[in-house]
Amino acid sequence: MNIQHYMENIGIGARDASRFMASADTKTKNLALRHIAHAILREKDALLAANKLDLDAARANGLNDAMLDRLTLTEKSIHAMAEGLNQIASLADPIGEMSHFKYRPSGIQVGQMRVPLGVIGIIYEARPNVTVDAAGLCIKSGNAAILRGGSEAIHCNQALAKLVHEGLLAANLPATAVQVVETTDRAAVGELITMKKYVDVIVPRGGKSLIERISN
């Protein structure tokens, strides 16, 4: 795989999708979130099977118990992911919210209005639930997302990505509004954090070791 070419295609798709997301109304975004939540519950067994593949590989690679615990999905955590999406859907839409009005000496009133950021790149480690949390928050806030989870959770993250895409398409939103990087090659991270033409914000989520790896 040509990583540079692969990541550029993801960036192009995300940039195009961000324009649709920025203009999506609250009802449409909430429909996508609720559909994803429903799909996660429907595909519970498939998610557990994908998670088992990740856990088996992690044990074979000698990952410690703490990492295995973060990687593990259960029926309870799957229900929590779905409930989290429904809670996000029930929140007020932040886009268009106006605040901090003040009058200038000229008499003009100015204020602040919340708008989407555009394309958000999020880099995180083993927890599969972060894939759903990040996707949900980006959809609600009218942004496109490029998600790069830990290689330990690749099977589960890809299974979740399919369900996220299903929900987006069901709401007539582009599937490329949320893309999960499919390769475990760390070169993809290097490309992601330098794609200034396509990515507006990078969010590293994790411990100090993750931040150090990204910055080096």
Describe it.
The protein is 56% helix and 14% strand. With 216 residues, it is α/β, with parallel strands linked by helices. Helix 2 (26-42) runs antiparallel to helix 5 (75-90) and helix 5 packs parallel to helix 6 (129-140). Residues 208-216 have low confidence and may be disordered.
Brief digest:
The chain has 216 residues and is an alpha/beta fold.
Notable traits:
single chain; 216 residues; alpha/beta; 4-stranded parallel beta sheet
Secondary structure layout:
Layout: H1 3-23, H2 26-42, H3 44-60, H4 65-71, H5 75-90, E1 98-103, E2 109-113, E3 119-124, H6 129-140, E4 144-148, H7 154-170, E5 178-180, H8 187-192, E6 201-205, H9 208-215
Parallel strand pairs: 3-4, 3-6, 4-5
Antiparallel strand pairs: 1-2
Helix pairs in contact: 2-5, 2-7, 3-7, 5-6
Task: Quote the average pLDDT.
Answer: 91
User: Compute the gyration radius: what is it?
Assistant: 18 Å
Task: Compute the separation of the termini in Å.
Answer: 23 Å
Query: Helix segment count?
Result: 9
Main structural class = alpha/beta
- The percent range for helix content is 55-70%
